[in-house]
Amino acid sequence: MRVTIAVHGRFHGFDLARELWGRGRLERLITTYPAFAVRRFLPADLPVRTIAWLEALRRLPLVPSPDLFIGKAFARFVAANLPEEPGILVGWSGATLEAMDPARARGFRVVIERGSSHIRHQAEVLAAEAKRFGLASAGVDPRMIEREEAEYVLADLISVPTGFARDTFLARGVAAEKLVVNPYGVDLAGFAPAAHRRESEAPRILFVGRVGLRKGVPTLLEAGRRLKGACEVRLVGPVEAGMDTLLGAGGAHVAGPKPGAALPGEYAEADIFCLPSLEEGLPLTLLQAMASGLPVVATPETGAADLITHGVEGLIVPSHDPEALTAALRGLAADPERRRAMGEAARRRVEAGFGWSDYGERAVAAYDRLVQRP
């Protein structure tokens, strides 16, 4: 069966589209990206249907609850643009519901891509963390929770990127046979070890991602304070509202958001990559750092156990544990040879199964198993 991908944005949907197209398995891509922007990332002859005004709305939100509005509008657009010949519809969680019954009625199998943990687990983690720090949080819209859980029920298959994410679904009663784990890939040519690492008395600990509670930034800031200048902590990414007070007392260098083209340079200037998240899917930055030859210090919630053998490619530490994080970072900071060995092992690990081609192969295998089911 050929595959139609419906993604409200880009996410890793464009990487999946490229891999399926190269294998002759893609029927069409449906997206909110305008056609000219799609062509920046994908072959010119790849068939695309777009509803670009929704992408404009995402970037300039002019309606209440834009995520809910965009999700519903995009799913209706998908339902109206399904191919005539039934196949597999791969849609993103929160933006597929209205297309699912029409697709199934016409003989499609429906796969939901969920790039994070179960939405109810995610909502509970975020609410607890906001309460812990006394920060105002809009939380997850209950209507989005209800919407995604309805998608989980209707889906023939739910694709998640890590075993940790899968386990949050199992804990909420989703059947194991309905779940597939397919870790994302990384551009192994675009992210490569630096020819020469910078020389510095204070090793640089790099964080790349949204600078906020979900990514465990307060724990990293506390670890940075305990290291007392032995390391430099550099935060790259957009800063969430309400984080200013925490950042002001943390002593980290806040670099702000950077374009994707600047990230290889950030990894090249770093000595250690740290991601102490509380809830994730599989951060692409984790794969990028490993491909760039950096040792990684991360929490189980990042899905690190699927990528890292503790003590080989990096270190896995508990979330919400500044003492454990400090000890891990201090040990690596004091041992350049261990950092080098771990960084080389990290590069070998992603080369051995985490390129985008590997991701595409796993996706095709999962779809083929799906269509063989009664």
Topology:
Elements: E1 3-7, H1 13-22, E2 26-31, H2 35-38, E3 48-50, H3 53-59, H4 66-80, E4 88-92, H5 97-105, E5 109-113, H6 119-133, H7 142-154, E6 157-160, H8 163-170, E7 179-181, E8 204-208, H9 217-227, E9 232-236, H10 244-248, E10 253-256, H11 263-268, E11 272-275, H12 284-291, E12 296-298, E13 314-316, H13 322-333, H14 336-351, H15 356-371
Parallel strand pairs: 1-2, 1-4, 2-3, 4-5, 5-6, 6-7, 8-9, 8-11, 9-10, 11-12, 12-13
Helix pairs in contact: 1-15, 3-4, 4-5, 9-13, 12-14
How would you describe what is shown here?
GO terms for molecular function: hexosyltransferase activity. Pfam families: Glycos_transf_1 (PF00534). This is Glycosyltransferase. InterPro entries: Glyco_trans_1, Glycosyltransferase_grp1. With 374 residues, the protein is of the alpha/beta class. Helix content is 41%, strand content 15%. Helix 1 links the parallel strand 1 and strand 2. Helix 4 runs parallel beside helix 5. The chain is globular and about 65 Å long. The chain starts with a strand and ends with a helix.
